[in-house]
Q: What sequence folds into this?
């Protein structure tokens, strides 16, 4: 039986910025990075007809979880927050220096109509606000 899964990631994006400097300043290894102009490689999907190669429109640094079976989005959210909560000053400085946009993306794959708890605690809200980050939800309902 399939279960509901949640993935959370933080992204720092800009037209172009020195990703290695961002990593070094934070002292955190990203789970994924890409630069403006990189080709977008997508896994094969028989339901999608690909026409040509698409390229990244901006540069990005990401720190995220894998998809995990979850009944509460905060389980994954705090895995990311725990790496970053003591880096507010550095994140603020980097945001100003490179004109970055910060986002937390919460991706939920619902199976068997089992939705996880979806609420944001004040600790997370305060952190996201302090670094001027937005929060996006991607919800996919499969069954």
A:
């Amino acid at each position: 039986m399939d279960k509901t899964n949640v993935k959370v990631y933080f992204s720092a994006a800009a037209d172009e910025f020195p990703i290695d400097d961002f990593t070094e300043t934070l002292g955190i290894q990203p789970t994924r990075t890409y630069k403006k102009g990189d080709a977008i490689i997508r896994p094969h999907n028989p339901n999608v007809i690909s026409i040509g190669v698409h390229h990244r429109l901006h540069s990005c640094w990401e720190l995220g979880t894998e998809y995990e079976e979850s009944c509460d989005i905060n389980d994954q959210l705090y895995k990311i927050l725990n790496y970053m909560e003591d880096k507010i000053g550095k994140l603020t400085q980097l945001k100003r220096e490179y004109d970055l946009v910060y986002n937390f993306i919460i991706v939920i794959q619902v199976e068997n109509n089992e939705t996880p708890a979806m609420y944001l605690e004040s600790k997370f809200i305060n952190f996201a606000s302090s670094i001027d980050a937005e929060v996006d939800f991607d919800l996919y309902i499969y069954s």
Notes: The chain is about 30% helix and 30% strand. The two ends are 11 Å apart (CA to CA). Residues 71 and 116 are 4 Å apart (CA to CA).
